[in-house]
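Box S1 | Example of a co-folding query
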Amino acid sequence: MPRIYLSPPDISAADHASVDAVLSSNWVAPVGPHLNMFESEVASIAGVDHAVALNSGTAALHLALILLGVGAGDSVICPTLTFAASANPIRYLGANPVFVDSEEASWNIDPARLEQALQKEANIKAVIVVHLYGQCAEMDKIIELCERYNVPIIEDAAEALGASYKGCPAGSFGALSFFSFNGNKIITTSGGGMLLSNSEAWIEQARYLATQAREPVQHYEHKAVGYNYRMSNVLAGLGSSQLSDLPRRIKVKKTHYEAYSVALNSLDGVSMMPISESCQNNYWLSCFTIDPSQSGVTRDMILNALSTAGIEARPVWKPLHLQPVFADCQVYGGDCSQRIFDQGICLPSGSNLSDEERGEVIDIIRSCFAIN
Ligand SMILES: Cc1ncc(COP(=O)(O)O)c(C=O)c1O
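Box S1 (continued) | Returned holo structure for pyridoxal-5'-phosphate
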């Protein structure tokens, strides 16, 4: 077991007190005042009018695709450099993911490649935009393209709570957007997610589908197939408490990124993930690439050295067009995301990572260069 984790939960005494208070209130089912409160708090941070708390970000994306009418045979555009959960719900509905490469500037979906996909593909029902590692995608260009081709945006802001682009918060750009509160995210409800939109009708429909599509009558009446996707009120209490600590977490994570940059950027072949001037990141994970042609040091040499020292680090997401499960899907470009995967490492970035622990991580990485 590692001693230093990539992005562990950060649970405070206030979180314990908050969960205790919810348990004492007996509102422990997926209904109650803490859910309403957590929904309005997250909606307010994202600058969006309506929100429904769910048991995962994946469930939120599944419902978003249903609300946009995605069905068998349709296509949905998705960046290739992301977690599989950004694309799996497309397949739940029998639709086809169309993958688009990253741009070097932000590691997010490349607007030029996106335009090619929008030009060439038929039956595109939605574009999923991911804000990778807490940095927003190039939204001005993406919004202009999606408006021109009349395709709605679903914002996968799973990793980007608290980030913003040109002063507008992550979560405020899509027709629908969602966050994840999975255990490794910047705030956690152990597992959880939230779907947001300015359309009250969509969010109410999502709430209905997430509650087994139960009709509002006294007996159990169902006219549609529903899901059991709601968040528990206990976890919403934890979410609100965690959320109140978000500004501190972003500050600490930014300090990690800056310290890693100072210590590592001067090493041969090392480049920290570029930070776009248009974005205020939440610095969820600090990442860098290592070009072995300059130093002889490879991604895996560094990962192995860290692992031997009891430090958890990970390769950057493996592009989805390279995953066996999506091997039959169309992809536009691919070289940029493949390079980032081949050379990219995510470093321990927890909001509870101490300066000493971060120093240990840095020492191990620098020692890989000293012996070469
Ligand atoms: C980019 C991205 N999209 C979607 C998800 C899915 O969220 P969840 O784990 O809450 O289902 C995650 C994280 O897990 C993610 O990192």
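The longest helix spans residues 246-264. The radius of gyration is 21 Å.
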